[in-house]
Design goal:
The chain is an alpha+beta fold. The chain is built from nine helices and six strands. It is elongated.
Length: 283
């Protein structure tokens, strides 16, 4: 399901801002865009989002606005400066004509500037911000899920109507087709072998009986309604049920004995396909 949430809050290093965007996906796919100075908090974000979202492609963006941050005492990271110096010397040997690094270049290099701030407080601020964003995101996805569920239930209702339309057509279609088959058999083998005709007609009746398929369609439709009514994470379960509905609709189409039954089976398949498309969007 799609959803969006954006929140911000103060922290020991400045103002944190976090955005969560989700789009449809069969599985959970997390993508992170995090400022370099906050990269260490990605595991916390990943754990919280995985616990709150089970399905969908989720894009998480975390940034820090540090201007004017109270309590932040910037300093230089000696280890980062040493690594940068070694890299600069190696680059100078490889490209003697290259311009030397300027002070501004050094200060912009990730990790060179450190701030004396409470890491535990910052971690707590990031976690709290993520929980707030998740609450908003889940609420947005729930609202969309309710609309999708309503659409699926409407298609289930239409499929039930098609199943009930087919049921009274079957006896008449079987009788008409059996009569046509018997007539063709009489023309082919003569009227003397009535036993052969009865055998062939009986075999045809067994192959053309779709009572079992219709009953399974009713059962699967009832299960779709039950799963949606129960709520929770229903996407994968409904995806399986949609496959089973499609299987029974295909069987019904292959056994269609009249144009009316064939039309009903085709409409069933179209409705099932619409349900399958919507189910991909549900968690």
């Amino acid at each position: 399901m799609t959803g969006y949430a954006a929140v911000s809050a103060g922290s020991p290093r400045g103002t944190l801002s976090l955005e969560l965007r989700s789009v449809n996906s069969r599985f959970l796919d997390l993508q992170f865009r995090i400022a370099d100075e906050l990269r260490a908090h990605e595991p916390v974000l990943r754990e919280l989002i995985s616990a709150g979202v089970a399905r969908g492609k989720v894009d998480c963006r975390l940034a820090l606005l540090a201007e004017g941050a109270a309590g932040a005492n910037p300093g230089l990271n000696a280890e980062a400066l040493a690594r940068l110096k070694a890299l600069a010397e190696a680059a100078k040997k490889a490209v003697p004509d290259a311009a030397p690094l300027r002070i501004a270049d050094l200060l912009r290099w990730p990790g060179v500037i450190t701030e004396d701030a409470d890491e535990e407080s910052l971690r707590a601020a990031v976690a709290g911000l993520c929980r707030r964003a998740l609450t908003d995101l889940v609420a947005a996805r729930s609202r969309e899920g309710a609309k999708l569920a309503s659409g699926i239930l409407e298609r289930v209702r239409k499929m039930r109507e098609r199943v009930e339309d087919v049921t009274p057509l079957m006896p008449q279609a079987i009788a008409a087709y059996q009569e046509k088959l018997a007539e063709r058999l009489r023309e082919a083998i003569g009227s003397a072998d009535d036993e052969r005709i009865r055998t062939e007609v009986a075999l045809f009746a067994a192959r053309g009986d779709v009572a079992e398929e219709l009953e399974r369609l009713r059962v699967h439709l009832g299960e779709v309604e039950r799963v949606l009514g129960a709520g929770g994470q229903v996407g994968k379960r409904l995806d399986f049920l949609a496959q089973e509905l499609n299987r029974e609709a295909n069987t019904l189409a292959s056994k269609a004995l009249s144009q009316a039954i064939s039309d009903c089976a085709l409409e069933l398949k179209l409705l099932v396909e619409q349900v399958r498309e919507q189910v991909q969007n549900l968690e």
